[in-house]
Amino acid sequence: MRTYLVTGGAGFIGSNYIHYMFKKYGDDIRIINVDKLTYAGNLENLRDVENRDNYTFVRADICDSEAINKIFDENDIDRVVHFAAESHVDRSIRNPEVFVKTNVLGTLVMLNAAKAAWELEDGTFKADKKFLHVSTDEVYGSLENEGEYFYETTPYDPHSPYSASKASSDMLVKAYMDTYKFPANITNCSNNYGPYQFPEKLIPLIINNALNGRKLPVYGDGKNVRDWLYVEDHAKGIDMVQEQGRLFETYNIGGHNEKQNIEIIHIILDTLNEMLPDEDPRKAHINEELITYVEDRKGHDRRYAIAPDKIKAEIGWYPETMFAEGIKKTIKWYFEHEDWMANVTSGDYQKYYEEMYRK
Fold first, then answer.
1. Residue 190 near residue 128, CB atoms below 8 Å
2. Which of 55, 140, 149, 162 is catalytic?
3. I want to staple 195 with a disulfide (CB 3.0 to 4.6 A). Which of 108, 145, 155, 333 is the partner?
4. Which segments constitute the NAD(P)-binding domain (predicted)?
5. Residue 348 is assigned to a structural domain of this protein
6. How many domains does the chain fold into?
7. Residues 35, 137, 233, 239: which is the catalytic one?
8. Is 0.85 topped by the overall pTM?
9. CA distance 212 to 196
10. Is 137 a catalytic residue?
11. Is residue 22 in some structural domain?
């Protein structure tokens, strides 16, 4: 049975990846989920799998080398999928130090632990051990012109403390691959959306605010463009890269769903009105009057767009979920999990787990 060590598995993308992997492989794999349970980590995301015999949760900080080395010492880890990261740009502007510590030092700790566990006396590595570092398209900076795209060869040009910290972590992984021939890959993805996304991110924020009649904040003129990737498509891409990709390579994973932020908001409003029954009282206040333009974010990149040509040509992955379908699936999930949203927005999920881990 192959054993996966997933960091940040209680977060948005990590938890969706775990669900995807169990759906695909069932009892043929074992997953160890390591998460610090910061504000973005929520074990409610994994309630459906927490009692599986082949799933283990370990509360630990990836910057804690003693804790991470212990996991490798006590388990024969075959795959590392490294999601754990501070990821919200606004928070990085307010507190860059946390991002540098988690994203850079934490990645270094993970690399060193895996290297120590997998390296043989002659400097080569045990067969069939692989490390996958999950990164972002934001490391490439901003695209100014229509028709331009990010490729794996695009020079890094990060503009926020968040993207700079992720670029630094990518460089560490690249250095380990080049220096030690460490068995790893890097993936750089576009903006994800789907179930379990923390509600300070654009799409769940707009869904939640619209349903509750609150203002819908839009940075600047609302015309910043992002490429949107349904999270399950991303999970599938990660698995395919780790099993079929060439070692030491970077693969960009993009959704072919470029949209302006203001377009996203209009689509969500239209979809909510389409999906809500006429008798639902919330329908009365879901309209464009909620849209409120606010001061633009500092260093706000204008446009991101990934060309996933390499992953499609070499591995056969492509985004299966177009935005019109994905946003309906996402909104339907939030309709069916309003208790989850209430627990997250109130902070009750954190209180529960803090109490549980004190016992």
1. no
2. 162
3. 333
4. 5-330
5. yes
6. 1
7. 137
8. yes
9. 19
10. yes
11. yes
Spatial separation of the C-alpha atoms in residues 131 and 40, rounded to whole Å: 23
Specify if 359 maps to a domain. no
Selection from 12, 63, 62 nearest residue 32 by Cα: 62
Rounded distance, CA 147 to CA 190, Å? 16
- pLDDT at site 353: 53
Q: Which of 44, 86, 138, 170 is catalytic?
A: 138
**Which class for 97: exposed (0-12), middle (13-18), buried (19 or more C-beta within 10 A)?**
exposed
pLDDT higher than 50, residue 253:
yes
For residue 228, pLDDT over 90 is answered with yes
Measure the CA–CA gap between 262 and 243, rounded to whole angstroms: 38
Catalytic site residue 162? Answer: yes
What contacts 220, CB < 8 A, 6 or more positions away? 293, 295, 296, 297, 300
pLDDT tens digits for range 31-87: 999 999 998 899 999 999 999 999 999 999 999 999 999 999 999 999 999 999 998
Contact 44, 340 (CB under 8 A): yes
Q: Is 78 a catalytic site residue?
A: no
What the block records as the tokens of 286 is: 């879901």
User: Which tens digits make up the pLDDT trace of 300-326?
Assistant: 788 999 999 999 999 999 999 999 999
Structural domain containing residue 213: 2-265+267-354
Tens-place pLDDT, residues 236-250: 999 999 999 999 999
Q: What is the pLDDT of residue 27?
A: 98
What is the rounded distance in angstroms from the CA atom of residue 352 to the CA atom of residue 343? 10
Using alpha carbons, select from 79, 38, 1, 95 the residue that is nearest to residue 239.
Answer: 79
Residue in 149, 138, 331 with CA at minimum distance from that of residue 256 = 149
Phi first, then psi: what are they for 151, rounded to 5°?
A: -115, 170
Cα separation of 308 and 312, whole Å? 6
- For the segment 127-156, what is each residue's pLDDT rounded down to a tens digit? 999 999 999 999 999 998 778 999 999 999
Q: For the chain, list the strands marked E by DSSP.
A: 2-7, 29-35, 55-59, 79-82, 130-136, 184-189, 191-193, 216-219, 225-230, 250-253, 258-260, 291-294
Mean pLDDT of the chain: 93
Amino acid at 110: M
Q: How far apart are CA 61 and CA 121, in angstroms?
A: 29
> Domain containing 126 — which CATH number?
3.40.50.720
